[in-house]
Amino acid sequence: MRRWALAWVPLVVLASAADSLRAAEPQLAIELPDVEVTLPQLSPPHFQKEGLPYFTEYEFVAELLALIGRQDYEGALARAKEKHAAELALLETGDPGGLVGRRAGPGRLPAPIVTAGDDISATAVYLIGIVYLELERYVPAEAALKAALVPLPDYQRVHEALGLLYLRTGRFADARVHLARAAELGLNTAGLHTSLGYLNSMTKNYWGAASAYEQALTMDPDNHNSQTGLLHALNETHQYAAALALVEQMLQDDPNDPRLWLYRAHLSLSSGERGSALTSLETAIRLGDDSAANKQVCATLHMERGSVARSVELLKSLSPEDLDFQFIDQALAWLDHEDEWDYFRDLLKSIDGRRPTLTGLQRSRLLTRLASLQLHDGNRLAATASLQEAVELDASNAEALLVLGQAYRDDRDYNRAELAFQRASAFDGYRENARVSLAQLAIDQQDFERALTLLRDVVSRNPARTDLQRNVDTLENLVLERSRE
User: For the whole model, what pTM was predicted?
Assistant: First the structure.
């Protein structure tokens, strides 16, 4: 049989580089700290035209205000019990019958009209509710505030206080009713808008949260609590440019807060600014962030930029138990791709203790990486054994199948090479390279017609593979010349 001499351009198979990197690449996600947005403090008690104490209560109300101003809430409660023992006893039961509400009056007058049941003004009841609320005694606080609304249903500050109470106790629907009512009645404070921002954030209405926090910051622009809430809301609504501008402003005030640097890293990564994400992550780590997940992301970004030594240093600083296998797999794939075999050995050795805890699929991936090192070292028999075991552990490990097929091809074991490439061609992402490998195998056996069919199929499916066109042209000439004999 005549052997044909070929003017040949080697077929480009990317299995050991692009395919392995794509298969190993994890989704990069920075671990952000819990959002620490606290509820605003109650607005200072404010007397409005619809909420004035009786003249006879002025001394009592002044004493309560002084104690509240000094945050002596226990003292204020004791004074209230001296003055209104019966009413407070009812409030502490939750006042299920609403008796305190029926005894409360609108105030304004020189003295309560006792015959009408106005024993205490709505303002005094409101102050008592504030005291209970600050002491986190929510049952009497709710009873008192609801009682204050009986004679004065449009008392703005009472609606605000009830909204805060319901926020603290997780009753968000009730909180919305009262906070919205306070806004409808004309209350327009930074605290109210911050409360609405918190409420919207807790109910995952992040667009509403962003709007409320922005309104709060127009009144109190340096409020760190509202800034943090707005940052979280902007991130959740994917307004990354606005969030980055805000975090830059916050960093000017507090450049040593690692949480802000983590947000900057996350927002930069989400915006495709990987260099900025890397520098921000490194700053956060230097300032004390010790998250294993973030160190792995940082190591990956270093690997992308060619900072192999720093990448391996970060990964080796973590205990084997903290390492996510997908990051290990990606790092080994990168080190293989960059021919950094000393670092490859170091990283592989650092996870020796982890091997017994790996799943079968993970062991299959690790054996594929080990085989690449064994091939580099010239230990083909060991590499083939590792790849065979990898495929036994995971029949869908297409990367191992491709490399194993190539090993069989090098040994001229064409039947087993054919089977390995055929199996790899069943998986998306590997089909193209598997069919190119099958074409190369056909050429080795001088089956030019089959090689031509395979390469034509690859080029028709992926016209960007212009590198194969010369091979197609050469095969067409060979097939034509054969047909003429």
Answer: 0.74
